[in-house]
Amino acid sequence: MQQSPASSLESALNKTETDAASTLKAGQTVVAQLKKLKRTASLGQLKDLRAAMQSTEAAVATLSQQFANTRDGWTFKDEEYFSNGRFVTELVDIARKNGLEIFERDGRVYCFPIIVRVSPAERRVLLNKKAEARVRPSVLIGILKDNQARPSQVRPEQVIDVLFRTYSKLIGDRSAEADEKVIPLADIYETLTLRPGSGREYTEQDFAQEIYILDRSGIRETRNGHSLRIIPSARPGQERKALLAVAEDGGQRWYHGIQFARASEERS
Description:
Layout: H1 9-43, H2 46-73, H3 78-83, H4 86-97, E1 103-105, E2 108-111, E3 114-119, E4 124-127, E5 130-132, H5 137-149, H6 156-171, H7 176-179, E6 183-184, H8 185-192, H9 198-201, H10 204-217, E7 226-232, E8 243-246, E9 252-262, H11 263-267
Antiparallel strand pairs: 1-2, 2-3, 3-4, 4-5, 6-9, 7-9, 8-9
């Protein structure tokens, strides 16, 4: 029986899983018949030998047919499914039914603190930067829940340290005037990804999410006593160098730049 082109990946995989279970059962019957045949031969029960061979042959034929049914039953157009956005739609729908906060923005899926990117050609996803080939929606949702339960790999203390070191390089002059200069976050990101190919490994969206996590943490002072000010975009979505992050509630957070000042001066 052919699958409808509109079938979900979950239902298609469920059918093939059921078919494979039937094939496995047929395979177990083959094993049982082969054991019986072997025992008949080992004992020299010539009267039963031909009947054992016929029973084994019938079991093998059943197995072959059952496997053919399993193979031919997989008609799911997986490349089309991944390319046209149906995978994201199904994943978000099933996730929400299972109580997982998940949001789709511009073809990406956000499940705080994870960005899920779909790779249609490879039939897999990237969870932040880690490749994941287990893409059955119900299974992937379990993986996302497990990841959420673990401590985030993004440490705000490390993010603010990297920001300060990059900011310091960009302003050059360490005078008090330069020390409080606002630097666009887009310029910070460009400096962090100067190495060829690094922009593919560490995207602007990755960077924006790290800024959001830092902002959310409330950490505003470096280890060497400089305080950070994170400057939101004055015109969300319109400012040329504004970066967009997606919050854990699905809302949008636009960030423009950062500014460091000596904490002691700021408090005076």
